[in-house]
Write a structure and sequence with these properties.
Arc Repressor Mutant, subunit A, Tetracycline Repressor, domain 2, 2 domains, 10 helices, elongated
Length: about 200
């Protein structure tokens, strides 16, 4: 995967060339309207028309700054504080991986998990939406886990023969499987998953 993508990357090139700044108040209105609409609508059923009407802007205003509905929705969701990936500096690689797993599971609980599951569902039929999801959400988690796992291989906490990409799949795979299959990401799952995960990374 490429390195972290900067937020608000969807300002279109024509707007940049013309020097027309993106109105922060309009941006907030669009993102707030999207969040409010998602409390009563699924990701699949939500439309650009509905967002524009709720925000009191024209559709062209939205398309000037975002390429599609998925980009608007994901920025509205993933820029909320509940989805930040800031964590304390871990004492070691094991604690780092454990903290990332715990944070990921807790972010996916309840309503937020439903929204992410719907985003993943829509992305299966849209390569562009899948790329936006990767850039705006997965990439940062991937980079963080990669740093912890590579560090653990260097310090001897994890097996030197461990393939980092495969190890990340082992961390993320069960979480997203539970998410899309509607199972709980509760404390019992986090505890059991953490125990099995650390054993596998040390093998």
């Amino acid at each position: 995967m490429q390195e972290n993508i900067q937020q608000n990357q969807y300002v279109d090139n024509e707007s940049k060339k013309s020097g027309r700044p993106r109105s922060e108040s309009s941006r907030r209105s669009i993102l707030d309207a999207t969040r409010r609409l998602l409390t009563h609508n699924s990701v699949q059923k939500l439309s650009i028309e509905a967002i524009a009407k709720k925000a009191g802007v024209g559709k062209t205003t939205i398309y000037r700054w975002w390429p599609n509905k998925s980009a608007v929705i994901m920025e509205a969701i993933f820029t909320q504080p509940a989805f930040n990936n800031v964590m304390p500096t871990p004492r070691n690689a094991v604690q780092g991986v454990t903290m990332q797993l715990d944070k990921l599971c807790r972010q996916m609980a309840g309503k937020n998990g439903r929204l992410v599951a719907e985003i993943i569902g829509e992305a299966q039929s849209s390569p562009e939406a899948l790329q936006v999801f990767t850039d705006t959400y997965l990439q940062d988690r991937y980079n963080t886990l990669s740093s912890y796992i590579d560090g653990g291989k260097q310090t001897g906490e994890f097996s030197e023969e461990l393939d980092t990409d495969s190890a990340i799949d082992v961390v993320l795979g069960p979480v997203f499987f539970r998410l899309i299959s509607g199972q709980e990401l509760d404390d019992a799952f986090i505890k059991d998953m953490t125990t099995m995960l650390i054993k596998s990374l040390k093998a």
